[in-house]
């Protein structure tokens, strides 16, 4: 039996809300944007227009280079009026989903909570990601996991060993099924409707312009390509595996095996090993790596069969209150219906993959009518689908809301805007640093200067002795005592502490008080104060500091005035790190 549509599932749930006379089609469709071609043309009367527009803004930003567009660029890309773009971006900025930098709008790490909601609900990255990573290590090749997304495939996990020679795809990237190895495997389960949808897409976009992650297709005979896809699908059904012999670009080869859900026998995701013809031909992949991939997949299937049921996490709290307060504060610039609508996506998550309307309303604190209209809007946009008669779930398309450009996060990238805001507030330069491998030095990984001339000339990459800097002290304090490098400490000024026992005692104190203040130990006249930045597990991964001439502030003033600001900045960085690090590895440099 075909799945019910959300609208059917919602029927009788609530008296129909009167049609919004302002409801209009996705403006991208009006502007002739090709990505809108697949969207159903008719917008349901109950769809929330500002929410549809917000989704369009997020999609256009996701497709843009670096996740950034100017406000006028966004106006052109969406076909929306400038005043509308201004209000949408102000609302998204308030939610922490984008950053406004002068005239530029940039996707912000917090937005990853939407994709995280989908990935957590799906559970596959949490259950299978470690096995995919281990296989990549063992083979020294890239390994990825992908799910079917209508007639495309979308990546949900990447263990990348990709050499510089070829494209490498990101979590959330969408590829056309027919140009990949997993595509024919998913197509073995396609319905007639899916094939029709695929043929319509091929006819409407023969060059693959609607796949921003891909270079345009070069082949001059699309019909032949399409026949070939049907043949490859038939072979995949017979073989239980499939190859990609340079369908995406010259040199790129892949072999894929489906991971089946043991309860239903259907394909849960497809595992891929990806290489380059300089290392393996496609046939070579099949002969040498397919057996290993198959046994890894067998382990993945066992994992799926034996995993305990998902523990439902707590739904996000107080969202509706927050949107109300923001409306009070920002007035016209804040579009409450957009903010409320977006919170609906975050109601889903681990152990919360299929929710009823009542559960969505309860989790978000929204009125049932509001939650219902948001669900109708999302179904129209292809982001939510009916799971059973009464429940809804997120689709892989939720990852198109900003996930790919944000999915290779680094700590310096995450920290920079927070360091800049901190420097702005305290009128001092601010820095982020990590510990060198030996623990003897700190290495600066981000820095925001002020115009004031400082005697220490520090740029990103600068290394300084850890024992004599506030950054170093905070980082050393997190190490177990036996791993602290305490011998052979250099005296840099008359004040430098070089006695191992004395330094060890200082580090223990730093650990308890949660900050380090260092006075003229690195350089005379220089005072600095630093706090730790912790990852999801509580480990100190970096330190943030501010430094100044001793005449600017007393040590007491540093603690009273700067420490709270530093702590606030560190916890903002940590909050971003938690969201960004949930399904991706955040590099510390
Ligand atoms: C990838 O993981 O980048 C990948 C997977 C399958 C393909 C091509 C690329 O066919």
Explain how this protein is built.
By secondary structure, the protein is α+β, with helices and mostly antiparallel strands. The protein folds into three domains: 200 residues, Arc Repressor Mutant, subunit A, CATH 1.10.10; 183 residues, 2-Layer Sandwich (Beta-Lactamase), CATH 3.30.450.40; 170 residues, 2-Layer Sandwich (Beta-Lactamase). It is built from 20 helices and 18 strands. α14 packs across α15. The protein is globular. Bound molecules: P-hydroxybenzoic acid. The site of P-hydroxybenzoic acid has 11 residues, from β4 and β9.
Write the layout of secondary structure elements.
Elements: H1 6-10, H2 27-30, H3 49-63, E1 68-70, H4 71-78, H5 82-94, E2 98-101, E3 104-107, H6 112-122, H7 124-139, E4 142-149, E5 152-159, E6 174-176, H8 182-187, H9 192-204, H10 222-239, E7 242-245, E8 252-260, E9 267-276, H11 282-306, H12 319-330, H13 336-345, E10 355-356, H14 357-364, H15 368-380, E11 384-386, E12 391-394, H16 403-406, H17 411-426, E13 429-435, E14 441-448, E15 463-465, H18 470-477, H19 500-513, E16 516-519, E17 526-534, E18 540-549, H20 555-580
Antiparallel strand pairs: 1-3, 2-3, 4-5, 4-9, 5-6, 7-8, 8-9, 10-12, 11-12, 13-14, 13-18, 14-15, 16-17, 17-18
Helix pairs in contact: 3-5, 3-13, 7-11, 12-13, 13-15, 14-15, 17-20, 18-19
The structure holds P-hydroxybenzoic acid.
């Amino acid at each position: 039996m075909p799945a019910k549509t959300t609208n059917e599932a919602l029927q009788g749930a609530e008296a129909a809300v009167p049609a919004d006379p302002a409801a209009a089609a996705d403006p991208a469709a009006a502007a002739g944007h090709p990505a809108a071609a697949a969207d159903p043309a008719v917008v349901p009367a109950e769809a929330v227009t500002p929410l549809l527009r917000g989704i369009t803004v997020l999609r256009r930003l996701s497709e843009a280079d670096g996740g950034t567009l100017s406000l006028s660029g966004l106006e052109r890309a969406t076909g929306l009026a400038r005043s509308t773009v201004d209000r949408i971006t102000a609302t998204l900025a308030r939610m922490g989903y984008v950053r406004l930098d002068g005239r530029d709008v940039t996707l912000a790490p917090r937005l990853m909570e939407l994709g995280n909601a989908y990935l957590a609900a799906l559970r596959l990255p949490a259950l299978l990601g470690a096995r995919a990573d281990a296989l990549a290590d063992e083979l020294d090749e890239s390994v990825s996991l992908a799910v079917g997304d209508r007639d495309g495939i979308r990546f949900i996990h990447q263990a990348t060993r990709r050499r510089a020679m070829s494209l490498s795809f990101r979590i959330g990237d969408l590829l056309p099924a027919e140009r990949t190895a997993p595509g024919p495997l998913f197509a073995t389960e396609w319905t007639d409707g899916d094939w029709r949808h695929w043929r319509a897409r091929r006819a409407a976009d023969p060059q693959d312009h609607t796949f921003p992650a891909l270079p345009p297709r070069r082949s001059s005979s699309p019909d032949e390509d399409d026949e070939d896809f049907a043949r490859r699908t038939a072979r995949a059904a017979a073989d239980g595996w499939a190859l990609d012999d340079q369908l995406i670009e010259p040199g790129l080869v892949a072999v894929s095996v489906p991971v089946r859900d043991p309860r239903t026998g259907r394909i849960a995701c497809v595992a891929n090993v990806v290489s380059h013809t300089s290392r393996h031909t496609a046939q070579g992949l099949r002969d040498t790596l397919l057996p290993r991939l198959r046994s890894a997949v067998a382990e993945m299937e066992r994992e799926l069969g034996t995993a305990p049921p998902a523990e439902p996490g707590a739904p996000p709290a107080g969202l509706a209150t927050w949107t109300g307060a923001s409306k009070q504060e920002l007035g016209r610039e804040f579009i409450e219906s957009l903010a409320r609508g977006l919170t609906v996506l975050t109601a889903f998550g681990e152990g919360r993959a299929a929710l009823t309307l009542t559960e969505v309303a309860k989790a978000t604190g929204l009125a049932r009518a509001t939650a219902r209209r948001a669900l109708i809007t999302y179904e129209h946009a292809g982001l939510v689908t009916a799971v059973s008669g009464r429940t809804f779930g997120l689709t892989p398309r939720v990852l198109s809301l900003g996930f790919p450009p944000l999915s290779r996060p680094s700590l310096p990238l995450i920290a920079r805007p927070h360091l800049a805001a901190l420097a702005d507030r305290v009128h001092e330069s601010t820095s982020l640093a990590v510990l060198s491998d030996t623990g003897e030095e700190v290495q600066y990984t981000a820095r925001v200067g002020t115009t004031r001339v400082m005697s220490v000339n520090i740029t990103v990459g600068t290394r300084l002795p850890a024992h004599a800097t506030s950054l170093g002290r905070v980082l050393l304090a997190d190490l177990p005592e036996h791993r602290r490098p305490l011998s052979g400490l250099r005296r840099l000024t008359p004040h430098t502490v070089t006695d191992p026992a004395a330094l060890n005692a200082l580090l223990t104190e730093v650990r308890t008080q949660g900050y380090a203040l260092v006075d003229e130990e690195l350089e005379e006249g220089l005072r600095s104060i630093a706090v730790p930045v912790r990852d999801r597990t509580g480990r100190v991964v970096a330190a943030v500091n501010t430094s100044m001439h001793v005449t600017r502030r007393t040590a007491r003033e540093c603690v009273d005035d700067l420490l709270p600001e530093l702590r606030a900045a560190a916890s903002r960085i940590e909050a971003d790190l938690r969201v960004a690090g949930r399904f991706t590895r955040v590099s510390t440099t």
